[in-house]
Structures are given as C-alpha cells and as structure tokens.
Fold this sequence. Notes:
Shape: elongated
Oligomer: single chain
Number of strands: 0
Distance between the termini: 47 Å
Mean pLDDT: 92
Radius of gyration: 24 Å
Low-confidence stretches: none
Largest sheet: none
Amino acid sequence: MVRDYLDCLGVAEADTVPINLVWRIAPEIDARIVEAREDAAKAAELQAQASRINRETVMLLKESGMTGRDIAAVLGISEQRVSQLAKAA
C-alpha cells in the first residue's frame, strides 16, 4: 500500500524506496520495545567481542605449548570448540 501511494505521488522508482514501519502502541510499551532492541544489539556486540577474545586466547595458549585438552579445561569449553576457535583464528 505504501509503495502504491508513493507511485501515486509520482515518486521515481517507488519500488526501490526503503520502507521502515514503526509501530506505536503506548509510550511505555514503545520505550520497552526500543530498550529490548538496544539491549539485543549490545548483547550481539558483546558476544562478537567475547568470540574474538576467545579466538585470540586459544591461539596464545596454543603458542605457549598447551594441548587442546588443556586449553578446553582452562577455558571451560569443549575440545571441539577449541579446535573450531583455532581454525577461525
């Protein structure tokens, strides 16, 4: 419907205009929705940071001569995860 409206207005290439729908329910609920989205974005950023640090730590421990089994024990992860992190690094 929005694209049809833009087309009626004569907007060039209305089918390529990005459309962002924003729900407005009630101010207190809208604020909670925004807060939840912001927190989810922060969590994703922190998860990416933790993954990077884990990869770097695995490589440092491998370079120090530790085995995959020892690294897994130190980091509290599985040996398979150590292997995955080492390959990704």
